[in-house]
Design goal:
With 283 residues, the chain is of the alpha+beta class. Helix content is 16%, strand content 38%. The protein has 4 helices and 18 strands. The strands form 4 sheets. Strands 1-2-3-5-4 form a 5-stranded mixed β-barrel. GO terms for molecular function: nucleic acid binding.
């Protein structure tokens, strides 16, 4: 009998705190809190084997989708910087994904609520751990994207990190890659991201950008500039004549993006410019 697997065992005796099950050679405890229904002697039960909090092989009537050799999406429910992250596979005991299987930089580890595609494995001490899906496993999970998916918005989950970029699998099942030049910052392993498809490759995988489209970015920049003017009481000492360095320092955007934002605000009748200053336009 091995932790992480499903077996059929016979009920051989009652204990004050549960039942002992046997395969004829070895007994394991099914605690009464782990039994899904009433149990009787000589009954055969299908159970999942795991280690309890004291490391003893135990049984539960809960059959998780994640088993040794079987994968599923699991939610991260805890993070321990000196150990790894804990995931919920449906048992009362959470499963550890070791720090050895996580990014070297812990700020790229999954947060609570992130999702990982996992199976279970045993270490050399027969302890049960979570194991991340490999590239081949994720490829088997995926489907190819059609060419007409170009420029479509997508959501996806990050499953692998490299220096050159991040690999995701989208909600539709497409395998995607986010080059480092197509993001502001590196997403976490297990993080759900929103982006858009910028290329569909021959094998059906997609390249993804996390940057908004130019007109969407213009709206974002315009709102940022407008809120700044409002926050200063309706006037600011910046205009389309301001130096690029001043704009970069104050708004973290290029001179071109700043001018486009001002142009949109003026077109919308929200601001006016006079003598190097920008003012909220009076209604």
């Amino acid at each position: 009998m091995e932790a992480g697997t499903v077996v059929n065992l016979s009920v051989v005796r009652k204990a004050p705190f549960g039942y002992f099950l046997s395969d004829g050679e070895k007994d394991v405890l099914l605690h009464e809190t782990e039994a899904s229904s009433e149990v009787s002697l000589d009954q055969e039960l299908e159970v999942f084997l795991y280690q309890d909090h004291e490391g003893r092989l135990s049984a539960t009537s809960i059959i998780p989708n994640v088993q040794v050799g079987k994968y599923d999406w699991v939610e991260v429910v805890g993070v321990k910087k000196n150990l790894g992250v804990f995931v919920d596979i449906g048992l009362k005991k959470d499963i550890l994904v070791s720090m050895d299987d996580l990014p070297e930089l812990d700020h790229l580890w999954p947060n609570v609520g992130d999702r990982l595609y996992c199976t279970l494995k045993l270490d050399n001490k027969e302890r049960l751990f979570g194991k991340l899906g490999t590239e081949d496993v994720m490829r088997d999970l995926s489907i190819p994207a059609e060419r007409n998916q170009f420029n479509k918005n997508i959501t996806g989950t990050v499953y692998r990190l490299l220096l050159a970029g991040s690999f995701i699998i989208t909600a539709e099942g497409y395998m995607g890659f986010i080059h480092e030049s197509e993001r502001v910052s590196e997403p976490r392993l297990g993080q759900q991201i929103e982006g858009r498809i910028i290329d569909v490759k021959e094998d059906g995988s997609v390249n993804v950008s996390l940057f908004p489209r130019s007109y969407e970015q213009m709206d974002i920049d315009a709102e940022k500039v407008y809120n700044y003017v409002v926050g200063r009481g309706g006037s600011m000492p910046y205009s389309d004549k301001s130096l690029p360095e001043e704009i970069k320092q104050r708004f973290d955007m290029s001179k071109g993006a700043f001018k486009r934002a001002l142009g949109k605000l003026m077109k919308d009748g929200k601001i006016t410019q006079r003598e190097g200053w920008t003012h909220i336009k009076e209604k």
